[in-house]
Amino acid sequence: MNRLFGSSGPKPPKATLNSAIANIDTRVSSIDVKLAAINAELTGYQTKLAKMRDGPGKTALKQKALKVLQRRKQYEAQRDQLQSQVWNMEQAQTMQDNLKNTMVTIDALKSTNKALRKEYGKVDIDKIERLQDEMADLLDVGNEIQESLARSYDIPEDVDEAELDAELEALGQEVELEREFGAAEGAIPSFMQDEVPEFIDEAPTAAGKVKEAAG
Fold it and tell me: For residues 209 and 115, what is the distance between their CA atoms, to the nearest angstrom?
């Protein structure tokens, strides 16, 4: 059926810059081979012409050499054109590669930007600020607690040690006097006697006080 209706087969793939550059490089190499052969031929003609005398033979040989030289110039011109085409396509290839790299970079930036927007959208700045304020308040409370616990209870600086020594000595003398002149045996020194509260009818006995002191 394809043959009857003249339908063509699958289309060949489109040429790329790389394939076109490779094709032209092959043609340039072919021209270089031809130029090498022409140069060898011209060298032979020059050698022969240098040995020949002027005359019809030398003139004919010279005409052949001129034709070969003209053909060489044509090949050189073709090679220059092909090399210029290769240069232009290489520049285009470089621009295409740079563009691809730029597009990859742009796509990566877009993806990153989208991800950052999604993540930052979950962050509530007001909550963070309130949390920071609460943390600052808690730190202040903690500092106040530490300062309160670290408060010292020193003896007032206006206490005179000489007065304390005099008072202690006076208490000692009182004890000695009461031992010598006590009215009852086993009496307790006055500084060890407790005052009787108003709600108690009778004062405790001296023996009871001694027992309590001993106990």
Answer: 88
Residue 201 has pLDDT above 60, yes or no: no
Tokens (6 digits) for 214: 């001993």
Full-prediction pTM beyond 0.85? no
Contacts of 75 (CB under 8 A, 6+ apart): 31, 34, 35, 38
pLDDT at 58: 84
CA distance 142 to 25: 82
One DSSP character per residue, the chain reads: -HHHHT---PPPPPP-HHHHHHHHHHHHHHHHHHHHHHHHHHHHHHHHHHHSPSSHHHHHHHHHHHHHHHHHHHHHHHHHHHHHHHHHHHHHHHHHHHHHHHHHHHHHHHHHHHHHHHHHTT--HHHHHHHHHHHHHHHHHHHHHHHHHT---PPPTT--HHHHHHHHHHHHHHHHHHHHH-SSTTPPPGGGPPPPPTT-SSPPPHHHHHHHHH-
